[in-house]
Design brief:
The complex is a heterodimer of chains A (about 230) and B (about 280).
Chain A (H helix, E strand, L loop, with lengths): L4 E3 L3 H15 L8 E7 H5 L6 H9 L12 H8 L2 E6 L8 E8 L4 E10 L2 E7 L2 E5 L4 E8 L4 H11 L4 E8 L5 E8 L5 H8 L4 E7 L14 E2 L5
Parallel strand pairs in A: 2-3
Antiparallel strand pairs in A: 2-4, 4-5, 5-6, 6-7, 8-10, 8-11, 9-10, 11-12
Chain B lengths: L2 H5 L5 H10 L3 H27 L12 H7 L7 H18 L3 E3 L9 H13 L7 H15 L6 H4 L1 H19 L4 H13 L17 H20 L8 H14 L16 H11 L1
The chains are: A alpha+beta (about 230), B mainly alpha (about 280).
Chain lengths: ~230, ~280
């Protein structure tokens, strides 16, 4: 709990917000062109005072929490052609520092919702409307699939064959036999061939490998991989 | 690792904390120590920038306090006190300017640990190398608290943030001055126990008032706790139970007193007027 090195003024409202947006940014393959950000609770009440708004914009641009461009992230967003739309809403029984991020680019549209827990720690609990569990502390794999027997085992086998070590695993389905989402945190990034293999596993519709965002370094622009489009 | 486990360390508390973090992986150990040295450099840089400027924050409520105190006469014959307070405010005024700081454990409470630890070290003329292991311990104390409660003003009130930072700082200063593992943890515990109930009521939602001066006060609080623990005083209530108590007080706090800018100092007539002015 000593760190991160960051631009002020708040580890939860600035650094944490930046990391949530960074995770959302890297759930897309290409940078977003439009973003709708819905702030909840303390995020909504003190967004401007804590620089939550600029920090979210910075994260969507791929900036890390110590990036000196955070205070001028709105200008950077304009220059990068990223359109931002902020709103407030009660997102229900969630942590007071929560934000729903809806992103769009030419290829896809998706939603990422999460909370900033304090000290720069974050938790993403929803992606594309599915319950997930991501901390950003690890490389994470998101898999959207049909709820069929054996899919989780096949994914786990591919991770094992690539000698990936699973830190956390979460899986939830809409309804029996319906669509389901797996979120798996892994100690290191899966190799490209493993991801390519997974895209060909029956019943898997969409997958994404997200970079870790807690070490302080901003991930590469192209550090997300997975299937294309919003299928 | 719980505070009780840290207190029972056979040698220095920081050695146990480090071993718990990296095991016997030598390269991981080196990496962690390198990170801590880097954090110290960043802390020092933020103190130096903060002491040298009186540039106002975004709202204009703070920005010159650290420098003004630093340049003021030491009328009390308490150079350590002045140094610790000035360092702490230097960091938080940098933070309020959206400058670069090290969260410890949060940004709003970032001044307390460097204020106390670097303040004491500079007062005694100690080298920064001596601060690396105390910083490792501070991080472990923060982790032990974080394991039982969210360290954020919006969930636990200011007590969760400044209490954690003061506890981390108290343990670090105690270790720096040669305190046992038991003394370090009890310094942290006394710091926490005497912070319970503090609300988070920032004017206009900005991390400035009362946050900047609060870091000055709680860095001194941390040094006081270290002084008591080094003299052999300890907490009657076991450390982890005190953390538990703080967590339950946090849950009892109404939302108005948890970083919404709607209660306490933020809800005063002047506080509201400033908030309105800034919103325009």
């Amino acid at each position: 709990m000593v760190g991160p090195v960051m631009v002020g003024p708040s580890s939860s409202h600035t650094a944490g917000a930046c990391r949530l947006a960074l995770l959302a940014r890297h759930t897309l393959l290409a940078p977003p062109t439009r973003a709708r950000l819905t702030l909840h609770g303390s995020f909504a009440k003190t967004a401007h005072g804590h620089g939550t708004d600029v920090a979210l914009a910075a994260g969507l641009l791929g900036f890390a929490p110590d990036d000196p461009r955070i205070p001028v992230a709105f200008d950077e967003a304009r220059a990068a052609g990223l359109e931002l739309d902020f709103g407030m809403a009660d997102l229900g029984d969630v942590h007071p520092n929560s934000v729903r991020i809806e992103l769009e680019n030419d290829d896809e549209t998706l939603e990422v919702t999460g909370s900033s827990l304090g000290g720069g720690l974050v938790r993403v609990f929803s992606v594309r409307g599915f319950e997930v569990n991501l901390s950003g502390a690890y490389h994470s794999l998101l898999v959207l699939h049909d709820d069929k027997p054996g899919v989780i085992a096949r994914v786990a086998r591919v991770i094992a064959d690539d000698e990936g070590n699973v830190a956390t695993l979460h899986s939830a389905r809409r309804k029996r036999g319906g669509l389901a989402m797996m979120s798996i945190e892994i100690d290191r990034r899966l190799a490209q061939y493993a991801l390519d293999y997974l895209t060909h596993v029956p019943y898997i519709h969409w997958l994404r490998m997200l970079p870790e965002v807690l070490s302080g370094e901003a991930p590469d622009e192209a550090s997300t991989s997975g299937t294309e489009g919003s299928a | 690792m719980t505070l009780a486990e840290l207190a029972a360390a056979p040698g220095r508390a920081s050695e146990l904390a480090l071993a718990d973090e990296v095991g016997d992986d030598r390269s991981a150990r080196e990496r962690l120590l390198r990170t801590m040295r880097e954090r110290l450099r960043e802390m020092r840089a933020s103190i130096e920038r903060g002491l040298a400027t009186d540039a106002p924050s975004r709202t204009g409520m703070v920005g010159w306090n650290a420098k003004r105190l630093w340049k003021a006469d030491d009328v009390l014959g308490a150079a350590l006190l002045r140094r610790v307070q000035a360092y702490a405010m230097a960091v938080n005024e940098e933070n309020a300017r959206m400058g670069r700081i090290v969260a410890a454990p949060t940004a709003g409470s970032a001044g307390t640990l460097p204020g106390a630890l670097l303040g004491v070290a500079d007062h005694l003329g100690l080298d920064d190398d001596a601060l690396v292991m105390p910083l490792v311990l501070a991080a472990a104390v923060g982790d032990a608290i974080q394991a039982k409660m969210f360290i954020a003003g919006s969930t636990g009130g200011c007590q969760a943030e400044i209490g954690a930072s003061a506890a981390m700082a108290a343990a670090a200063v105690t270790e720096l001055l040669g305190g046992s593992a038991h003394a370090c943890v009890h310094a942290a515990t006394m710091a926490l126990m005497n912070t319970i109930g503090l609300v988070c009521d920032p004017v206009g939602g900005y991390v400035e008032v009362p946050c900047v001066s609060r870091n000055a006060f709680y860095s001194v609080h941390a040094v006081s706790s270290a002084q008591l623990a080094l003299a052999g005083l300890e907490s009657v209530i076991p450390p982890d139970e005190v953390v538990q108590a703080m967590a339950s007080v946090g849950r009892l706090l109404p939302p108005e007193l948890r970083e919404t800018g709607e209660g306490g100092i933020a809800a005063t007539e002047t506080g509201r007027r400033i908030a309105l002015k800034m919103a325009r």
